[in-house]
Design goal:
5% strand; 2 strands
């Protein structure tokens, strides 16, 4: 997965099924990857919502919580992309303070621009 300015998203898909990965665990070495993955997932969810695939969006918001938001301390899955974003930002900011670091907002800036043209 690669998110470029604009944003443009590039997914490389190979002829093998994607192996299920465990939820992310926040640490100094993973927080930026969590951030990139969150914004990539958000952009993908927005495209599914625009295509009228609301059931898929609802199911994926649950997976988003299981893999990213829950490990960051968000107690329950959110019903909308916008609520997930708000909860994510709060949790990310708390982890940055806890870990004494600040990650770049590059992916967030690109995706937010696409979400609110």
């Amino acid at each position: 997965m690669l998110v470029l300015n604009g944003p443009a998203k590039v997914d490389l898909i190979f002829g093998q099924p994607h192996a299920a990965l465990p939820p992310w665990q926040p640490s100094p070495s993973t927080l930026r990857g969590i951030d990139d993955h969150f914004w990539d997932w958000t952009l993908w969810l927005r495209s599914k919502r625009a295509a009228g695939k609301q059931h898929l969006v609802e199911a994926e918001l649950g997976k988003l919580h299981e893999h990213l938001l829950g490990p960051l301390g968000v107690m329950q899955a959110r019903a909308t992309i916008e609520l997930a974003i708000a909860c994510y930002r709060t949790a990310r900011n708390q982890w940055e303070r806890r870990l004494g670091m600040r990650i770049p907002r590059t992916a967030e800036g690109a995706v937010v621009q696409a979400l609110h043209p």
